[in-house]
Amino acid sequence: MTRRRVFTVAVQGLGGLAGAAIVLPAVGFAVAPIFEREDDRWEPIGPPDDFTAEAYKAAVITIVDGIGEAGKTTVYVRKGSEELGEDPDGYIAISTRCAHLGCPVRFVEAAGNFICPCHGGVYDFEGKVIGGPPVRPLDRFQTRVRGGKVEIGPRYSVTSQLEPVRSRDPGEFTGGIWEYLYPPRPSTPSPP
Amino acid sequence: MPKLQLPAALRRPAKPGSNGQVDGKAPEDLRETPAARPEPKVTDQAVEAGKDVVGWVDQRTGLSGFLTGMLYRKVPKGTNWFYTLGSATLFAFVVQAITGVFLAMYYTPSPTQAYGSVTHLTNDVFLGEFVRGMHKWGASVMIILLFLHMGRTFFFGAYKYPRELNWVIGVVLLILTFVMGLTGYLLPFDQRSFWATVVANNITATGPVVGPYLADFLRAGAEFGPTTLTRFYAIHMLLVPGAIIALIGAHLYLVVKLGTTAPPWLKAQRPGSTRPVEAVVAGANGASPNGDRSRT
Question: Which of B14, B77, B139, B158, CA to CA, is 20 to 30 A from B227?
């Protein structure tokens, strides 16, 4: 190894180091949100007496602060139903984010179904898919009762058997091999 | 057509063998007895001053060789209006860049103020509706022109050797232009923008393995959040335009370097011959391997 070669390699190495010192922090800055998790939000929506096991009640909650309307979403809440094998003391909070591509679904009383306006997804009373393109049941929110109020917490997704899994984006299958093809994101909390 | 008052540096290069003079004559000031010069007019002086400035810059940059080489380059016989589609796309991009800069003067990339700033610039600002309209409709025009340009290149076979790399750069430019369309769509921040972006993000998320992380990257988090709009804005007005400008530079460099192709309906001809190469080859030595190769 000649002196010339040593200097060439050393200068190139220094140049690379200087470049990395600028580029790496910038890239880290841009991708950091992937690894950050927001604190869990719990938002009270009313006393337990407001809710029954037979009908949904719509509530508007804020899931992201400081961005106005864009940070709000509608949730359909009811008590757990013994007929459906749910805990009668618990609450079911169904997310209105369609499991196809994220449009807002609404519960249509006359049909007893959730219906999506964008591409025709249809879900039954429990939020299971009964028509259209959605790939999994509607997401849910965690619930609890604190200080005499029902509170809505973080979102989670469910498999086709309604087993809770970490929140997935719309369009992603859940359960089985899909848990590996659509890996859980560090930015989402664990399911209940 | 009146003779253009071009500085010497920018005049058409002389033909080989013409001894450096375009018209074969010595320039005025080299003739043996210079004509008596009348007092120059003010307009002439202005023209001369312009030429002097260009000459001054050229002496210090040597740009004229590049400029004359590019502006007076040979183009093949049969070059027609279809060959202007690339320039038209470039013009559409320039329109987008200019109107975009002026829109940015009034736009506020904040989720609570974006919609208000867009309605303000559309309804209240002088000519705001016009500038925004240029940007909005210009976006579609650029995509249409891009596809026409791509179609011309494809059907004229202009993507073949040695121009494959320019095709590849063009395809990257096409994708970047789509990214511009996607990110720009969110900026007015009305219901259509918002839900279209939600859907586009979720389509991104359906890619296996990397999809969920890509969507988180685009949104800057698990949900549409306070920095999603600023992120799209930065991608739309800084990141992608920078990449597009750099790639357009590379695209144009290769166009000038490699030249353009003749339209496919023109047959190649030997210099000075009126017969197509194929006929010459087939007639002279049609059976030889050389003849076969040059026919393909």
Answer: B139
